[in-house]
Amino acid sequence: MRSAFPVPSALAAHAGLGLGLLVGLAVGCAQTRLPDPKLAATRYAEAARTGDSERIYALLSSEAQRDYGRQGTQRLVEQAKAELSRQGAALLSPETRVQASAEIRFEDGESALFDLEDGAFHLSSLGTVPSRPRSPSEALGDFRRALARRSYPALLGVLSAETRQALEGDLKSLVEGLENPETLEVKVSGDNAVVQVPGGHQVKLRREAGVWRVQDFD
């Protein structure tokens, strides 16, 4: 179970350093008292503002420390010193909001995401529960899981409002056009058939082992 504070996306462009910081706050599930994520965020902000690679290295997870090492971290910090200074100053602003989250990964690749609110973790994403992707990669992850589960509700949940309305409109039109299938003209050619459906749709069918199946539709 991990708790993380969001690091500005620009930092992640520097050889993935931001990804290491994202998992820098390890929290055991059995703990009854959680560390304040604002404290870690403040420590990072101060280290970033002053370009202190040692303090930034100390905030990395053990895995990130192994990946980058002290020298690698120092090199990355030197390359992004000016940018880190600006980001550190911005993070120290009174208007900065720190959001902590925890993720549990299951053996099948699925995961449950919780947000820390008022000192307790609350479910924000699990299966068909609507998620709140904070980055394009998280949205793609939701899209992949919806496709893997063959879940139509989950798929609708990851689409934009415009795309969702268009898809639902097309499906509604197709359903209405197929209301009386026995009245539709079916053109059969051997084991293939084509049907023109009212509303501008076309359905293609194919006979497999004596059973007709829908092969394609638009």
Write a concise keyword list for the protein shown above.
alpha+beta, single chain, 9 helices
3D structure, described in words:
Strands 6-7-8-9 form a 4-stranded antiparallel beta sheet. A 3-stranded antiparallel beta sheet has the order 3-4-5, with no helix packed on it. The protein has a two-stranded antiparallel ribbon with strand order 1-2. Among the domains are: 2-91, no CATH class; 178-217, no CATH class. The chain is α+β, with helices and mostly antiparallel strands and 218 residues long. The protein has helices at residues 9-12, 17-22, 37-50, 53-59, 62-79, 81-91, 136-148, 152-158, 161-177, and strands spanning 2-3, 25-26, 101-105, 111-117, 120-126, 186-189, 192-197, 201-208, 211-217. Helix content is 44%, strand content 22%. It starts with a strand and ends with a strand. It is built from 9 helices and 9 strands.
How do the helices and strands line up, and which of them pair or pack?
Layout: E1 2-3, H1 9-12, H2 17-22, E2 25-26, H3 37-50, H4 53-59, H5 62-79, H6 81-91, E3 101-105, E4 111-117, E5 120-126, H7 136-148, H8 152-158, H9 161-177, E6 186-189, E7 192-197, E8 201-208, E9 211-217
Antiparallel strand pairs: 1-2, 3-4, 4-5, 6-7, 7-8, 8-9
Helix pairs in contact: 3-4, 3-6, 4-5, 7-8
Describe this structure in a few short sentences:
By secondary structure, the protein is α+β, with helices and mostly antiparallel strands.
